[in-house]
Specification:
Layout (H helix, E strand, L loop, with lengths): L1 H15 L4 H10 L4 H16 L9 H36 L12 H31 L7 H31 L4 H35 L1
Length: 216
């Protein structure tokens, strides 16, 4: 406290003679004063001049909540998309049986597990997406959040990777002449689900970019 008072008195005296803040801060730092003491003294100086305390931004909890929203959203996104694809795979194998298989491979246990995951994860995903959109409407600066951008682009990267792998696999089977109706249906299932996710998040980024351009 004595250190801060000493710095404060010096700042007041120097400001009376026209010294600038950056010059004073640099000089005090060169004299060995810690930044926390320097800025605390400046804060007290300007608080006295303005009659207002220096505002403090409490953003840690907000960032933690934002990270929770996006992480849960993308966790449920991965859960319900994989579950949906697995359900369709099982149905395709039932609707288009392999004539070489004497005993069709249909697991009611597997399909029930995937249906349960889909029923649980998809509503949570919709709910969290709605919360995020509402938060963005109330605080448009959230569009520039690093957490949002990183996780959105990560989801797009994974979806794009799945789409490319799906197309490469299709072309490989096509070139070998191994295409079957069942295989094509599975390829289309993956393409629709992963492509839909990629298109949705890409469209959301484009809409935001269009809003900014229109506002400008």
């Amino acid at each position: 406290m004595a250190n801060r008072q000493t710095v404060l008195e010096f700042i007041k005296a120097a400001k009376c003679h026209g010294a600038e803040d950056t010059f004073l801060a640099t000089m005090l730092r060169e004299r060995g004063w810690a930044d926390k003491d320097i800025f605390a003294a400046f804060s007290e100086h300007y608080s006295v001049l303005t009659g207002l305390s220096v505002p403090t931004r409490h953003g840690g909890s907000e960032r933690a909540k934002e990270a929770f929203y996006y992480l849960l959203t993308f966790l449920t996104l991965g859960t319900w998309t994989i579950a949906l694809g697995s359900v369709f795979f099982a149905l395709i194998e039932t609707w288009f049986p392999d004539p070489l298989e004497q005993f069709p491979n249909f697991s009611f246990f597997a399909i029930s597990n995937n249906l349960a995951a889909l029923i649980v994860a998809f509503p949570i995903y919709l709910f969290m997406t709605r919360l995020i959109l509402r938060s963005l409407q109330e605080n448009p600066e959230g569009y520039e959040s690093g957490i949002r951008k990183w996780l959105t682009y990560l989801a797009m990267l994974l979806a794009a990777g799945v789409v490319m792998s799906d197309v490469v696999t299709f072309l490989a089977y096509f070139l070998r002449g191994d295409l079957t109706v069942r295989f094509v249906m599975k390829v289309l299932t993956v393409l629709v689900i992963a492509g839909g996710v990629l298109f949705y998040y890409l469209a959301s980024l484009r809409r935001r970019a269009g809003d900014v351009a229109h506002g400008a």
